[in-house]
Design goal:
Spore Coat Polysaccharide Biosynthesis Protein SpsA, Chain A, eight-stranded mixed β-sheet, 8 helices, 39% helix
């Protein structure tokens, strides 16, 4: 999937939103709201309670569940890197607001091939932490749930992986949480527009969606099926909009962005093995 610029129901990025943004100081961790304290006390993923990491979390966190994605995940990282370079060309090279957070995961009953694939990816990501993502413009955080004692149970899946990544970003002080998938390619303007969203809504309870299109498949038959699927998604959404349903947005995990306050007020990400994005989006839509 390829992510286009950020859009939000009732909000579009306007030029004045980022006037002088590059000169604005990035705020440190703000005081915790009542909703935030309640979430951290009662709903934070238990495996994160005693976790700590020396690498500081930046205000805008890209949260990515990853499993069996070596070497394809590096295409995703490259697209994020290019988007960051574009953002910094507008914001200035000293603008340090972005973190990538990867939850590398496998189930205890997964094939050895999956676990070995994850091990290769972990090795390369740890190398990149010290080179490409050394903290100069973007931090890279790695949560390893692909080793003995940390494997997911058979009933767990992408919902838990998303929740772990989002909860860790929240716990570490991120103020904008962007949900991504490991096979997504983001647009050049993606991070710049996230910076817009952060500057405008960092202290509020707001959420947003990205436009999307699927990557072009090599085979014509696959492209025909993909086009039909996308047409269905958009038409179904339009029909819901036409009957004034508030639940008309297309629910796709890697298109959802929210502030930390919206995240905790919605109840956070659920642990469903599938459809987690649908139910999370419903919770965000219900916010007032």
């Amino acid at each position: 999937m390829e992510k286009k610029e950020l859009r939000e129901l009732g909000w579009r990025a306007e030029k004045h939103d980022l006037e002088n943004l590059s000169s604005k100081k990035i705020l440190s961790k703000k005081p915790l709201s009542k909703a935030m304290r309640k979430y951290l006390e009662k709903k934070l993923e238990p495996s994160l309670l005693n976790c700590d990491e020396k690498t500081p979390m930046r205000p805008i966190a890209l949260c990515i569940p990853v499993s069996y994605e070596y070497p394809h995940f590096f295409r995703t990282l490259r697209s994020i890197h290019l988007s960051a370079m574009k953002a910094l060309s507008y914001l200035g090279e000293n603008y340090q607001a972005f973190s990538i957070l990867c939850c590398i995961n496998a189930k205890e009953n997964d094939a050895l091939e999956v676990k070995e694939n994850n091990a290769k990816l972990l090795h390369e990501l740890r190398r990149l932490q010290k080179t490409e993502f050394d903290g100069s413009f973007m931090n890279l955080h790695i949560l390893d749930y692909s080793h003995e004692g940390a494997y997911f149970k058979k009933k767990d899946g992408v919902g838990l992986a998303r929740k772990i990544a989002l909860d860790w970003a929240l716990k570490s002080g991120a103020e904008v949480l962007a949900s991504l998938d490991a096979d997504c390619l983001v647009s050049e303007n993606y991070l710049y527009t996230l910076a817009l969203f952060y500057q405008k809504y960092k202290n509020k309870s707001k959420w947003a969606l990205c436009g999307f299109s699927h990557q072009e498949p090599a085979e014509k038959a696959h492209k025909k099926a993909m086009d039909a699927y996308e047409t269905y998604l958009h038409e179904h959404s339009q029909f819901l909009f036409d009957i004034a349903s508030p639940y008309y947005p297309v629910a796709l995990g890697p298109t959802i962005i929210c502030t930390s306050e919206a995240y905790v007020r919605s109840g956070g990400m659920n642990k469903k093995i599938a459809g987690e994005d649908f139910y999370f989006l419903q919770s965000l839509i219900k916010l007032k």
